[in-house]
Amino acid sequence: MFRKILVTAAMLAAFGHAYASVDVNTANEDALRGVKGIGPAKAKAILEERAAHGPFKDPADLGKRVKGMGGHTVERLQAEGLAVGPAGAAAGPQVAASSQNKGAAVAANTPKGGATVAVKK
């Protein structure tokens, strides 16, 4: 029983972390400042660059276009929850596709007549 509770808590923590990411291409100043390592000046610089030249394509693009944000800084900010570019936008469809595939696998393994069989371990 304790093991089930522990697994459930771990899954909830993982889902919470997934939803905590901040997309640099859509975030406002307050959201950017919510990422550990981004202060008021860096948030303002990101917003000004995005307004002047459009959305960031990828982490390397962010590092090149915003002064003071090199590769290591961008990597550290990504670890803190900053999402950059198409990878963050494509995560939603990937999750939906994997959910559909799991449903198809369950349907394929269901006996004829639609009854499911519970197996106790």
Automatic annotation (TrEMBL):
It comes from the Bacteria. Transmembrane segments: none annotated. Residues 89-121 are annotated as: Disordered. InterPro entries: Endo/Exo/Phosphatase_dom_1, RuvA_2-like. One of its GO terms (biological process) is protein secretion by the type II secretion system. GO terms for cellular component: type II protein secretion system complex. Residues 1-20 form the signal peptide. The keyword DNA-binding does not apply. The keyword Plastid does not apply. Keywords: Signal. Residues 89-100 have a biased composition (Low complexity). This is Helix-hairpin-helix motif.
